[in-house]
Amino acid sequence: MNRSKGVSLLAQGVASCSTQATAYGQCVASRYQDVHKDMCVKEFEAFKQCVQKVVSKEKMVVLR
């Protein structure tokens, strides 16, 4: 897979997970003055899993 297809897959994954992205962004924004490691880990993990799920599904379609 070339680089532009990879970026396109990632962009599609992020766009498909707007609910999770919003929750993560709101969590970070609500405490931006006190940022620390793992402060929004639950929201980040939900976002990450959603993106990975979408990307893996789309990757299978592209490879066919």
From TrEMBL:
Signal peptide: none annotated. PROSITE patterns: CHCH, PROKAR_LIPOPROTEIN. One of its GO terms (biological process) is mitochondrial respiratory chain complex I assembly. One of its GO terms (cellular component) is mitochondrion. InterPro entries: Cys_alpha_HP_mot_SF, NDUFAF8. PANTHER family: NADH DEHYDROGENASE [UBIQUINONE] 1 ALPHA SUBCOMPLEX ASSEMBLY FACTOR 8. This is Uncharacterized protein. It comes from Phascolomyces articulosus. The lineage of its organism: Eukaryota, Fungi, Fungi incertae sedis, Mucoromycota, Mucoromycotina.
